[in-house]
Specification:
This protein is α+β, with helices and mostly antiparallel strands. It has 13 helices and 8 strands.
């Protein structure tokens, strides 16, 4: 049984206790629409881990113990930003883990920040080797573009409009193929996700989903691929066509389909697949837009999605 009694601090630790500080909040505005108060964001500026510890204590209402040698850590932590107030602690839980800070419960109302491995260090340990040129060539030869789309569309029919069921049907179908065929499917998926990494399609995603982060746009591209070859290729030619099957009250995202090949490979082979090439771009293709420009760029979508 966990001991929830609050421990005494160690000699090398600094204690941050909850205060009554009032943090300013700002309304969140999406496409010119002010969101309800529960979506208000808290603008924050932090210079080091000590700042984060006090913010964490104030919002979690818990005591935070931090070793003195971590107080001035700033890598990946320092900067400005805004976080929804109700998700601030959850956001810090994820961000700190990525930057090598573990949050350890010590008691009912006490946590400690401890030095851990950053996401880059964890990935370096867990990451499989890059696929060799011979593996890429074999995978490419094993999966044609037409067969890729046949598999996606068959899974779409089995999923009957449900993204999770589609991804599950696709993964089940892929596990019946050879290892090279599965890798080839994932390679084709990476190609489709890469060629649709465009500012104009990001604008459509932003309009139909009421906003789209980096991850949100990635999952929108998964949804776009899940619609099948004809729909996908029409959207590449005319981005507005990407919204034809989208709806303001539906989930226009599909994260799971993007990794169906990797998941199927691991299920079949009992190990992670080799790392396959991606598009290699760090920025979307095309002309960048500002949020205020989207209604002018896509006026036909305003009435449907605002």
């Amino acid at each position: 049984m966990m001991d929830y009694s609050n421990p005494a601090p160690k000699a090398d630790e600094v204690i941050f206790r909850p205060t009554d500080k009032k943090y300013p909040r700002q309304p969140q505005v999406v496409l010119g629409n002010r969101q309800p108060p529960e979506f208000d964001v808290v603008p924050l500026k932090v210079d080091r881990l000590a700042d984060v510890a006090q913010i964490y204590a104030d919002f979690s209402r818990k005591e935070v113990h931090v070793p003195r040698d971590l107080l001035d850590r700033s890598r990946g932590i320092a900067g400005t930003g805004a976080v929804q107030a109700r998700y601030l602690i959850e956001s810090y839980d994820m961000q700190l883990a990525d930057f090598g800070i573990d949050i350890v419960p010590l008691g009912r109302d006490v946590v400690a920040f401890r030095a851990g491995k950053s996401i880059e260090e964890r990935k370096a340990i867990e990451r499989p080797a890059n696929a060799t040129p011979d593996q890429v060539a074999a995978a490419t030869a094993a999966m044609s573009h037409d067969r890729f789309w046949q598999l996606v569309e068959a899974a779409g029919r089995a999923g009957r409009g449900d993204g999770f069921q589609l991804a599950a049907a696709l993964q089940a179908a892929l596990t019946k193929l050879t290892a090279n065929e599965i890798l080839g499917f994932q390679l084709r998926m990476n190609e489709r996700a890469g060629e649709s990494y465009r500012w104009d399609l990001w604008g459509i995603a932003y309009m139909v989903n009421g906003g789209a982060s980096d991850d949100g746009f990635e999952y929108f591209r998964g949804w776009l691929i899940a619609q099948g070859k004809t729909y996908y290729e029409a959207a590449l030619k005319d981005p507005v066509r990407a919204a034809d099957r989208a709806g303001p009250a539906q989930d226009n995202e599909n994260e799971e389909i993007l990794q169906a090949g990797n998941a199927a490979y691991q299920a079949k082979m009992g190990r992670l697949p080799p790392m396959l090439p991606h598009c290699g771009r760090t920025e979307p293709a095309g002309a960048r837009w500002e949020e205020k420009d989207l209604p002018k760029l896509y006026p036909e979508l305003v009435k449907r999605f605002r």
